[in-house]
Amino acid sequence: MSKTWDAIVIGGGAAGLFCAGVAGQLGKRVLVLDHAEVLGEKIRISGGGRCNFTNLHSSPANFLSLNQHFVKSALARYPSSEFIKLVSAYKIGYHEKHQGQLFCDDSAKQIIEMLFAECAKGKVNIRHPVTVQSIAQDGDQWTVHTNVGIEKTKSVVMATGGLPIPAIGATAYSLDIAKQFGLKVVDPRPALVPLSFTADNFGNLNELAGLSVPVRIASGSKGHRYGACRFNEDLLLTHKGLSGPAVLQASSYWEEGEPIHIDWLGAIERPGGFNCDELFNNEENRLKLTETILASVLPQRLAKAFADQKGLTGRKWAEVSKKDRQALKELITNWSVKPAGTLGWKKAEVMLGGVDTKELDGQTMMSRNHPGLFFIGECVDVTGHLGGHNFQWAWASGFACAQAL
Ligand code: FDA
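A: This is the predicted complex of the input protein with dihydroflavine-adenine dinucleotide.
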């Protein structure tokens, strides 16, 4: 039996390492336990190896949770600007890619090294691979049994992440511990995940594999668990259907059996704005071919595919009836398709659901009924949109917890 720790953090990923580093630097004696051979694997593979480590515009509106207000306090206390300061202090080069998304110029490994350096500054003890066998409350202390011994601590921080990518060691351990202590868990579900489609969904569009088009995509509805969404993002046509950031964003709000809606003209950016009526009602287009008019705003092959679908290819606009113009407009601006399913945990980036936020104090991430038991990062029912928001939640929830240890 060794000394009593101030905190044992279970899970040395983004949230766990960050929390441990902050707490250690506040003078707390912190032990991190992780079952993995290599730590920070999700960070290493994130953002295509460049880690989209935060988003300039991260705000509560970028998160799904049964309680939309839960993230507010933690995000306000540790906004993206604070993490950017830390990254800058370590002289890690970064750039903005798209809609406020910040990526490392070189490698995600720099973020992992920074987290280890922060832990070293706080004299954090990191042990892995270690199997945590059980966690028990013992008066105002906690006992953690592992395959290499027993540890005592004042606080336990559960930071084992979500279920995506089981091949790199994802487990439901935080959710199991929550249930062990009687905390409610919102059913986990894959999110930011590719959707699967059946070939007959697409007509002639699956001949256009490889095409990437900015669209407005909508999914979900007010009555759904996390409501509805509308994103302007890039949509990729593939041999199997649709993919790319637009579909990943929509997947978090999608419910089985429901369609998603795509406005192929909804994300067109023009000085002074773009109104699709200008396209469909413009009499200057009278002598142009239907596919030529569409190709002024859509990739040529896509324009032709839509004209083909309505039998209007080769027809001058003046010859197209009002009814047919309306049907074409409806097809292009409210294209709806029913996904068959998701590609599941193997391909998901994050988990929807997790420890119900009603069970936690939003200022500290501590269990309301079990003082000393904390949950941070992805295991909590807080899921960010694509674009660096999930790491921002890992940092912000880790920071809030560290102040309370
Ligand atoms: P994280 O998964 O980081 O860490 C959990 C830790 O717990 C791991 O070290 C694991 O080994 C350990 N663990 C698990 N079970 C355990 C057990 N039973 N006992 C002990 N230890 C255990 N987000 C973003 O904002 N920008 C991005 O660019 C990306 N890109 C991205 C790409 C891919 C392919 C994926 C899968 C995910 C992303 N994400 C992302 C999401 C992001 O990686 C994720 O939200 C955070 O890593 C969550 O941080 P956590 O610390 O909660 O879990």
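The chain is about 25% helix and 25% strand. The CA atoms of residues 33 and 83 lie 24 Å apart.
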